[in-house]
Structure formats: structure tokens, C-alpha cells
Amino acid sequence: MLLEKLNIDSIRNEWKGKLMNLKITIIIPVFNKEMFIENSIMSVLSQDYENFEVIVIDDSSEDDSYNILKNLQIREKNNKLLLLKNNINKGVSYSRNRGISVATGDYIIFLDADDEISSSQFFNNIARVVSKYNAKYILTTRNYYDKFNRPSLNSISKYLFELEKDTYIVKDKQSTLINGGFPLGGSASAVFSIDLLSDLRFQIDVEKFEDWLFFTPLFFKTDVFYLSNEMIYINYDEKSLSRRKINIGNIAVPEYYTYLDGNKSYNKIRKTFFWMWLNSIISKDLTRIDNLRLLIKFRKGIFENLFFSKVFLKSLVAIIIKLIS
After folding, report:
1. 226 and 263 fall within a common domain
2. C or N: which end of the chain has fewer Cβ atoms within 10 Å?
3. Which residues belong to any copy of the Glycosyltransferase 2-like domain (predicted)?
4. Total structural domains in the chain?
5. Confidence class of residue 186 from pLDDT cuts 50, 70 and 90?
6. Is residue 151 located within the same domain as residue 277?
7. Does position 12 have pLDDT exceeding 80, yes or no?
8. 95 with 60: CB under 8 angstroms?
9. What residue numbers bound the domain in which 118 lies?
10. Rounded-to-integer distance, Cα 295 and Cα 259, Å
């Protein structure tokens, strides 16, 4: 649906009075998050909005996460909290798919087990936007350890149309995606109607950018709304962010790139993603020779994705600095 076809008055009348009938499902996969999981769950249970459910899937944690969850369920005596457990470690994609399979809400939010909803009014504001505008996909902001936001309102403001204070509709999705730093993925970056899903599920055989593979088709499937004042706080977890030993022989172009390459309308997005990804694998932790080997290995993609943009120039400069430092 194009922006100019959006009839706000008729949508408001259609959805008037349906606010509290909207049920929200929060799906939280958990694996070894004993330090964070209680705060994450409590940020959901503390919402002022009443009509929601929390589906937590413990992915066979090796720490005390599952016991914390069971005790939390008993202590809070909250029938909104459903606790599931995978018998063996299946991965985040399997866990999220399992959550989808038992969800009874009208809208779904994925929250990571080490992150928190920053406002007790989060669900109220989601329901407000749905009731006023029949929004099917709502984008929110992630706050990374109080260091930076994604997306930053300043970076995407010219691609938005303001509906009311702190509430926007995206008028240029491609530019919002590129200049917003690909604000896709878990941690409640997106609140979406279950009606959009159809047969779409997370690909369990994809290890990297599996969430972007899931959310990109949803992002382009319907009007996208943006709440600039609603944030998810991303906690710093050294275990999650620590760098594994890099084996350059095993590095391959991600499946997400292949997906973008298969759709001509995603051409600019594909090029932008390639340079972001290439910048991420060229590392100061590698020798200069190994970094050069990576550039040679992906030389075809380098030549295919040359284009002039801020993201390209920033990535290129960052790569050069890594090579000469």
C-alpha cells in the first residue's frame, strides 16, 4: 500500500474501540543468559497493558537460566508466562519458530533474553498505533548500551512522514533500511501482525543474518510505521560479543546476500550490505596477509558492488585503515 493511499480517517473509525482487544505475543529464546533473563522477563511483565502473553523457550541452557525462569514463573504467579524447553540445543531460529507455532496473539514481538523493554508504556503505544492506523508492521529503536541508537531518527527523518508526535510512517523503505543501519532483527526491532507471516519462518540452517532473512520480506510487504520514542535496551554481554577465532577458509558470502541478489529491486540494498559485511570480516585481529587473502577471495563481489554512497565510502575507508594499521 502506497503512502498516498493511506486513508487515516477511515482507518481510525474502523479500529475505534478495538484497542484493548489486541493481544500481543512476546517470544524470547534463551540460551545461557542467567545474568540477564530475569530483568528481561520483568520488563515485559511490568507493562501497563494487560492483553499479552510471554512465550519463553529455553534452548537447553547449560547455566542456571531455566531454574531462574521456573522460579520466576512460580514467584510471579503469572499465567501470561509460558515456559518451554528444548531437549537439546536447537538454535535461536528453531526456538523462535517454536514460539510462533504456539502463539495466540494478534501481533508478535521477538525479544532477546539479555535485552529489556525500556518503557512500561511500550505495549500501550503499540496498541495505539495499531488502533489508529491499522499498522501491520511497527519499527522501534534499539539503544545499544547507551552508546548509539539504531535506527537514529536523524539518519532516517527525511524518509519518514510524521503522523503525530513521535509517530511516523516510512515513505522510502529502501533508504530507511540502508541509512538506518539495517534496523532488522530481534530485540523487538519490529512488531508485526501475525497475518503477515503466512508460511514464512526462520531458516534453521542459516547461522548469520537469519533474522534479516526473516524480516526483510515482511518489511517490504506492508506499510511500515516508526515509533521514535519507543526503545529496546540492548545490554552488553561479553559472551555474545566476544570474537571467535577466525578461519578465513570457512568465511563465505552470507545467505542474506544471495537472497538480495535474487531480487533486482533490492540491488542497492545488496550492494550496501556487501560493503557492510566485507568491512565486518576485514579485521585487525587478522594479519595483513590474511586480510588481503579475503579481499582476493571476494574480489568478484567487490567489483560487482562498486557504487557511490556514504555507506560504501565509510566502509572502504574503514577497510583501508584496517589494512594499513
Report:
1. no
2. C
3. 25-156
4. 2
5. confident
6. no
7. no
8. no
9. 3-240
10. 22
